[in-house]
Amino acid sequence: MFLIYFAIIIIVPLWAQMKVKSTYKKYSQVPSSSGMTGAQVARKILDDNGLYNVAVEETPGFLSDHYDPRSKVVRLSSGNFHGDSIAGAAVAAHEVGHAMQDQEEYAFLRFRHALVPVASFGSNISWILIIVGMLAGLADLLLFGIIFMAAAVLFQVVTLPVEFNASSRAMEQIVSAGVIRNDEERETRKVLNAAAMTYVAAAAVAVLELLRLVLLYTGMTREE
Questions:
Q1: Residue-wise DSSP of 195-216
Q2: Which residues, by range, are in coiled-coil regions (predicted)?
Q3: Is 187 a catalytic residue?
Q4: 14-28, 86-100, 175-189: which has the highest mean pLDDT?
Q5: Given 95, 163, 184, 187, the catalytic residue
Q6: How many domains does one find in the chain?
Q7: What is the 3-state secondary structure (H, E, C) of 97-163?
Q8: What percent of the chain has pLDDT over 70?
Q9: C or N terminus of the chain, fewer CB within 10 Å?
Q10: Could you write out the DSSP letters of every residue in 11-27?
C-alpha cells in the first residue's frame, strides 16, 4: 500500500507534465485561422477589455508564460510571443485572463495573493518540523509542521479556481475576438485543459500528502 501511494504521488504529476507538453507541442504546430501571433492576441484582448496599461513582453524559456500583477505585464515565452499557433493563442489568452482577474479584483486571486507569504514560509519550514518531529517522536512538533504545510496546500487548492476561471475567460475572449473559428474551439480547449491538469495533479498530491501526515500524527498521539 505504501509503495502504491508513493507511485501515485510520483506518477500523477509526471503524467500531467507529459500531457501538457505533448498537447502543447502538437498544437503549437497548428496555425490559427486568424494568423495572429500570441503577442497580437494578448494585445487585442487587453485592449478590447480596456486594459491599455498592461504591457505584453517576451520572456525566455519554454512555457514560461505568466502574468506579473506587480508590474502589470503579460509575459509570453518566445515561441508563443512570435508564433501564430492555436496553442500560442490559447496560452496568451489564458495569461490575459489573469490580468482581467487582477483588474476586477477577483476574489480567489486576491485570496491567493494574500496566502503567498504564509504559503512560502510554510513550505520552507514545514518539512523541517515534520522530519524532526517524526525522528524525535515529538507529536506537537509534527503537528506544527502539518499546520504550516496546510497553508502551502491551501495555496495550491485556491490556485485551482483561479486557473480554471482564467481558462474560461480565455475561451470566451478568443472566440468573441475572432482569434479562432468555431471548429478550432475543440483544439484550443484541449490545450487549456492539459495545462489545468498540472495544477489539479499538484493539488491532489499535496492534499494526499497532508492527509498521510495527519494519519501519522493521529497514530503517534494514540501511542502516547
A1: HHHHHHHHHHHHHHHHHHHHHH
A2: none
A3: no
A4: 86-100
A5: 95
A6: 1
A7: HHHHHHHHCCHHHHHHHHHHHHHHHHHHHHHHHHHHHHHHCCHHHHHHHHHHHHHHHHHHHHHHHHH
A8: 97
A9: N
A10: HHHHHHHHHHHHHHHHH
